[in-house]
Design brief:
It is built from nine helices and 13 strands. The chain is an alpha/beta fold. It has a single domain, classed as 4-Layer Sandwich (Purple Acid Phosphatase, chain A, domain 2). A five-stranded mixed β-sheet has the order 3-2-1-12-13, covered by helices on one side. A five-stranded mixed β-sheet has the order 4-5-9-11-10, with no helix packed on it. A three-stranded antiparallel β-sheet has the order 7-6-8. Helix 3 packs across helix 5 and helix 6 crosses helix 8.
Length: 271
């Protein structure tokens, strides 16, 4: 079976409960993870250790908290009590190196699904998003990744401009993969709003969820994403949001994506 799960954020105990509930067997099954493996939860270190142990059964895309962990490891961003154990662990460098080797975008034509942590930019079609992901994956996987990661925190870019510098293009690409929630009708991204979609935002601020952008380029595969706990589990014809806010006391959600009819499984989380 092939399952997809939303943001884990270090909630190791709830992850194990959910995997037991669906009888997940890493010898036979595959688990897609929509980013944010770590941070805020009670046990980010054990989460990474477990996922590394079953790594051959996983498909992972990176989220903003995963990038923040890498930046903290490099001394670019401050650490916090939930990721300190990773940075201080004897196997921490190896786990972070493994995390750094992961993708920002995954596509499976046969299953008819693709996955990114925050979604797909309204400005990108399927070919553009695939090429954009490869571009910044090459940066993160390369030997000069520290300088690249450091440059990503300087300034956010709200639109993609082919005439921009390579660094500015990379900032936009990364932001769209790991930070996007809302956008304007013309496709420009809006990073300040973090709440659930609100009709007043549409009327007064002119912003809509990125997947409702009227100028969004068509993407045929269903898009799996996370990152938006205030949106919660959401499903329509084109997208599936699997961040149901476990770390905030909400739910942890997984869906089966290799059957004609999706199977959705939730567990209730405590804070």
């Amino acid at each position: 079976m092939v399952w997809a799960i939303g943001d884990i954020q270090g909630c190791h105990r709830h992850l194990m409960i959910l995997l037991k509930k669906i009888d997940f067997n890493p010898k036979h099954d595959t688990l897609w993870i929509a980013g944010d493996l770590v941070n805020r939860g009670e046990d980010s270190l054990e989460t990474l250790r477990y996922l590394y142990k079953i790594r051959k059964s996983l498909v992972i895309v990176l989220g903003n908290h995963d990038i923040a962990l890498i930046a903290a490891y490099l001394g670019i961003k401050k650490s916090n009590p939930s990721i300190d154990p990773i940075l201080n662990a004897h196997d921490g460098p190896g786990l972070i190196k493994w995390l750094r080797s992961q993708k920002f975008f995954h596509l499976d034509h046969d299953l008819g699904y693709c996955m990114s942590h925050a979604g797909i930019s309204p400005q990108f079609d399927l070919n553009m998003v695939s090429q954009a992901a490869k571009k910044i994956e090459k940066r993160l996987h390369g030997d000069s990744y520290k300088a690249w990661v450091s440059s990503m925190f300087d300034k956010s870019m709200d639109h993609f401009d082919s005439k921009s510098s390579e660094i500015e293009k990379d900032r936009y690409i990364l932001s769209s993969f790991v930070r996007m929630r809302f956008c304007y009708d013309d496709g420009r991204l809006e990073f300040k709003q973090k709440g659930a979609p609100n009709p007043l935002d549409i009327e007064q601020k002119g912003i809509v969820p990125w997947f409702d952008c009227p100028t969004r380029k068509k993407i045929k595969p269903k898009i799996i994403f996370g990152h938006w706990s205030t949106l919660g589990y959401y499903s329509d014809t084109h997208v599936r949001c699997l961040d149901s806010g476990c770390v905030w006391g909400g739910m942890m959600t997984v869906i089966q994506i290799d059957s004609k009819r999706e199977k959705v499984v939730h567990i209730k989380c405590d804070k």
